[in-house]
Amino acid sequence: MRSWWREMTGLVLPAACGGCGSPRTELCEECAAALDAEPRRARPAPEPAGFPVVHAVAPYENAVRAMLLAHKERGALGLAGVLGGALAAAVRAGAGHAGDGGPLLLVPVPSARRATARRGHDPVRRIAAAAAAELRRGGTRARVLTALRQRRAVADQAGLGARDRQANLAGALVVADGARRLLDGGRVVLVDDLLTTGSTLAEAARAVRAAGHVGGSTADGLRAVVVAASPSAFEINRN
After folding, report:
1. What pLDDT digit, counting tens, does each position of 93-132 carry?
2. Where is each Phosphoribosyltransferase domain found (predicted)?
3. Residue 143's CB: how many other CB atoms inside 10 A?
């Protein structure tokens, strides 16, 4: 019911830009341009063990931060398209284009059930679906595979430092039994909306590797994409 209500209110209530709050538009041109950037490698410091290769589109600040929060926490579901488009660009940068191997399997990092219930939707899964659709329009075989699930409860990550986040998430994710064989049918790309300490993506990568997937044909292991990363996480001179 709550998800339905969010969908309806997004259609009938007056729109305001998800980036700057300008009236009568869901996203203004200036804020949209913040996501029209060349995806870059991003790496936190310190880097968690097993951290995958990650590409991000923009720093988590200003309009980009506002857009992600509006989509995730305030039900601005119309932003899923532009956020998914940004993810698709990151996927192309990190995993290649059509013809580079098997189909791309976009594996979203799961949200806690209580967070999904509170928000009325799963934001990462939603933008992953938009990214897969954008990739298919460009001729790349891609689909969302909801392979990961939480096998134990975790604490709210807000306010936790890098070490506490790693301890909080250690062993929390697992590949669902029915998804194990599907992982070997394509190139896995882990998907999240935001990179901060890297603990979440490191745990997701551990779970996928524990299920027997070692990164397909890529020599440097699993790939991952996010819309935004902490400004300090962007690599400048290391590639």
Report:
1. 988 654 456 789 999 998 777 766 666 778 999 999 999 9
2. 179-212
3. 16
> Measured between alpha carbons, how far is 65 from 199 in angstroms, rounded to an integer?
19
**pLDDT-based confidence at 148, cuts 50/70/90?**
very high
**Given the DSSP bridges, would you call strands 148-150 and 194-195 parallel, antiparallel or unpaired?**
unpaired
For residue 188, give the nearest of 130, 158, 150, 146 by alpha carbon.
146
84 in Cβ contact with 131 (< 8 Å): yes
SS3 of the chain: helix, strand, coil, percent, to 5? 40, 15, 40
Q: What is the pLDDT of residues 4-37, one digit of tens each?
A: 434 444 444 447 888 888 887 888 998 999 999 9
Tokens for 203, please give them. Answer: 């745990």
Side-chain half-sphere CA neighbours of 235 within 13 A? 14
* Inter-helix orientation angle 199-210/162-169, to 10°: 30
Dihedral Cα 184, 186, 190, 193, nearest 10 deg: -150
Please tell me the distance from the alpha carbon of residue 183 to that of residue 214, in angstroms, as a whole number: 10
Kindly state the tokens that stand for 207: 């779970």
**Rounded Cα distance, 203 and 208, in Å:** 9
Residue type, 95: A
Q: Which tokens belong to 115? A: 């967070």
Alpha-carbon separation of residue 230 from 35, 98, 198, 216 (angstroms)? 15, 30, 10, 28
